[in-house]
Amino acid sequence: MANQNYNPFENAQTQFDRVAELLQLDEGTRQLLRQHRQEIHFTIPVKMDDGTTKVFKAFRMIHNDSRGPGKGGIRFHPHETADTVRALSMWMTWKCAAVDIPLGGAKGGVICDPRTMSAGEQERLCRGYIRRLKSLVGYNIDVPAPDVMTNGQHMMWMLDEYESVTGQRFPGMITGKPVGHGGSLGRTEATGYGVVYCLRECLKNMDIDITKTSASIQGFGNVAEYAARLYTELGGKVVAVSCWNAEDKTAYTFRKADGCDPAALAAIKDSFGSIDKAKAIELGYEVLPGDAWLSQDVDILIPAALENQITPEVFPNISKQVKIICEAANGPTTPDCDALIEKAGITLIPDFMCNAGGVTCSYFEQVQGNMNYFWTKEEVLEKLENAMTRAFQNIYDLAKEQNLYMRDAAYVIAIKRVAAAVKARGWC
Ligand code: GLU
Fold first, then answer.
1. Which one, out of 10, 103, 169, 402, has a CA that is 20 to 30 A from the CA of 19?
2. Is position 33 within any domain?
3. Ligand 1 test: best mutation among 67, 84, 89, 92, most atoms within 8 Å of CB?
């Protein structure tokens, strides 16, 4: 569950302000970039299967679109808030800029729990969401995608609704579509693989052999699963995986000291990333409390769930063995913990670089859709690997050259690109 003692938007602004100061950014640009260009708050009435109507609160926000149309996922979560969407859309701006793709930052969310809704109820919610936003989204305005607890099926319902109300076909209005329905091969793997491309490059730079490393992961949704799969393929050992258990309303950590098998765990998880506890025990996994993932004696921690998980309060529980924190989630570390991580000499691969593989592949999906010509999975993954490796190395090199914490180095690169775009447009 997200730690509600921290406000993610305040965190995002704190991170931005620190680097805006470092760059001596002019006041107008600072004001523009610490706020949103557009915020939509609305409600969606949904006819539930029992005949009652339930009203859901929803959001869509564009943080900045100077480099291209807004881009970012839609999250379905019972604890979604306006400030979470504000933070996530701001991070999307930096994410697209960090990997240098011509898109801006946006994000959406609905306060709901799809785990307790039927497929029909989810479909009506998706259609209601896009119907309300029909003139505010589009391939050249703002392009949604999946995020926490949304998937390709949700995107298809939204695409169909949009095309029904506009009367035309617009495959580029949404990404994360299923393969065969306008989606890109490799999109499912992209975010998790991107995390591991960054990790692999980081280890190379640090002269550490990946086959001699171990990792502990928080979360087992799409991102965590594919990160675990590729990391294991490259020879790393995943010692523990933690995830939310909707039935027991608590999180558990599943541990196997000689290495978890990501494919076996994927086979016993539901579509929201909850691993079946009884089946995991049958497979020989130890079941520990949800926060045990953080205190494992491993070289790498991969938070791949929600924001505000690594705080000064839990920092002392991190093993002295940890060398790298690989932020697969958006905003998993609070700003007051960054200083502790830096002081402890732990290398942090910042979120908007580490998890940029998803949006990079979304961009490839749009390019392929526009050409109406689809690449092979090998081509997609090769382009993804090149884009992620290049972007990561730029950030890593800048951090080394200027002795910067890697999060600050990533912000320097991203903010400079966005500031150049707003200047070129004559906004500031
Ligand atoms: N939701 C993903 C993210 O946070 C992907 C966004 C996209 O593809 O637009 O990066």
1. 103
2. no
3. 92
Catalytic residue among 71, 95, 107, 256: 107
2 Cβ neighbours under 8 A, 6+ residues apart: 8, 79, 84, 306, 307, 308
Q: CB atoms < 10 A from the CB of 172, how many?
A: 19
CB 364 within 8 A of CB 379: no
**Domain range holding 152?**
39-170
| Torsions phi, psi for 75 (to 5 deg) | -105, 135
In a domain, 364, yes or no: no
Whether the predicted model's global pTM rises above the 0.90 cut: yes
pLDDT digits (tens, 9 = 90+) for 135-163: 999 999 999 999 999 999 999 999 999 99
Cα end-to-end distance, the chain, whole Å: 39
**In this structure, are 87 and 204 located in the same domain?**
no
- For residue 52, the domain's CATH number is 3.40.50.10860
Task: Say if residue 117 is in the same domain as residue 200.
Answer: no
Phi, psi (deg, nearest 5) at residue 299: -90, -25
Ligand 1 contact, 72 CB (< 6 A): yes
Report CA 20 to chain centroid distance, whole Å: 23
Indicate whether 258 and 309 sit together in one domain.
Answer: yes
**144 and 99 within one domain:** yes
**204 in Cβ contact with 227 (< 8 Å):** no
Which structure tokens are listed for 8?
Answer: 């993610």
pLDDT tens readout for residues 73-129: 999 999 999 999 999 999 999 999 999 999 999 999 999 999 999 999 999 999 999
Say how many Å lie between the CA of residue 4 and the centre of ligand 1.
23
